[in-house]
Design goal:
- The chain is of the alpha/beta class.
- About 45% of the residues lie in helices and about 15% in strands.
- It is built from 14 helices and 10 strands.
- It has a 6-stranded mixed beta sheet, sandwiched between helices. It has a 4-stranded parallel beta sheet with strand order 5-4-3-6.
- α5 packs parallel to α6 and α12 crosses α13.
- The radius of gyration is 18 Å and the shape is globular.
């Protein structure tokens, strides 16, 4: 049994996945530091293999699976990046893998999943929540073991906790850590490490206004497992949360913010122009929050969570 997310599980998982991931850099942003009136550091998971931190959690989940379950295959529903990570991890462990995508998932993510050798199935539904419900109605068709993109203890610590452990090795005791928040796996896992190792650091999750599943959950005091989402360029943050990630976030995060869709688009373009790096909409959520004026001062870490953006979408966001 894996058990619930914990620092001990995170340390175990980190050793298991280390041979298969890139230890991504923590880079000081001169331009964003001037803007925020402090020191801003970017954790560049956009430079991770598969273009996203999601590889970490997928590797962790498969590393913890019994051999018999691996042989029978795994499946998942994903907006794209978790599917990419699981497809790569399945190749590492020699596991059959099926990825169900919403109809709206970017083509670049589907192509990457297929290139890793996984089977791809497009659901007839645009949103993540509807796609997952459609997948679950047909669960027996995909494989033996479902690997959630966020509601899995190994995925949570593999994603957020291992990222945070690296950050703290490079920058002990930051004042703020700003975390993209969709299903809550990244923010919950990172917040868990912060509470255990640097409790004076403020950990903040960032939802999109288009799909504020965790924000609504905090407001209402219950997990919103499904939300009605508006169109968004941050498809990786779209959809509801689980009871596990909701409870974890309330325990380990200090606050939860939302950013408008327009701020996400501006942040993608800003990172490309100022930092000479590509990020997708989800990957720019922390930058969008900082550019909206939160937080200011001190040593701030922002996680750039992914870079898998369709070239045409990126071109439009770069147009003046």
């Amino acid at each position: 049994m894996v058990g619930e997310p914990s620092l001990e599980l995170a340390l175990t998982v980190r050793g298991l996945i280390a041979p298969h991931i890139r230890r991504t850099p923590l880079l000081r942003s001169e331009a964003l530091s001037r803007f925020a009136g402090g020191e801003v550091f970017l954790k560049c998971e956009n430079l991770q293999f598969t273009g996203s931190f999601k590889l970490r959690g997928a590797l962790a989940a498969l590393a913890m699976l019994p051999d018999e379950s691996r042989r029978k295959g795994v499946y998942t529903c994903s907006a794209g990046n978790h599917g990419l990570g699981l497809a790569r991890a399945a190749g590492v462990f020699g596991v059959p893998c099926t990825v169900i995508l919403p109809a709206s998932a970017p083509r670049v993510k589907e192509e990457g999943i297929r290139a890793e050798g996984a089977r791809v199935v497009r659901s007839p539904f645009e949103g993540y929540d509807d796609a997952e419900a459609w997948m679950r109605e047909r669960a027996g068709a995909w494989g033996e073991t479902f690997v959630s993109a966020f509601d899995d203890p190994a995925v949570i610590v593999g994603n957020g906790a291992t990222v945070m452990l690296e950050i703290l090795e490079d920058l002990p005791d930051p004042d703020w850590v700003v975390l993209p928040c969709g299903g809550g796996g990244l923010s919950g896992g990172a917040g868990l490490v912060i509470r255990e190792l640097c409790p004076h650091t403020r950990a903040v999750g960032v939802n999109t206004e288009a799909s504020p599943g965790m924000w609504l959950s905090w407001r209402d005091g219950r997990a919103h497992e499904r939300v009605d989402s508006a169109p968004t360029i941050a498809e990786g943050l779209e959809g509801g949360v689980s009871e596990r990630t909701y409870r974890l976030s309330r325990r380990v995060l200090d606050d939860l913010w939302t950013v408008p869709e327009s701020a996400l688009g501006r942040a993608v373009g800003w990172v490309a122009r100022e930092e000479r790096m590509i990020v997708e909409g989800s990957g720019a959520a922390a930058i969008a929050a900082i550019r909206e004026g939160r937080p200011r001062g001190g040593r701030i870490v922002a996680i750039l969570s992914g870079s898998n953006i369709d070239p045409e979408r990126l071109r439009k966001l770069l147009d003046p």
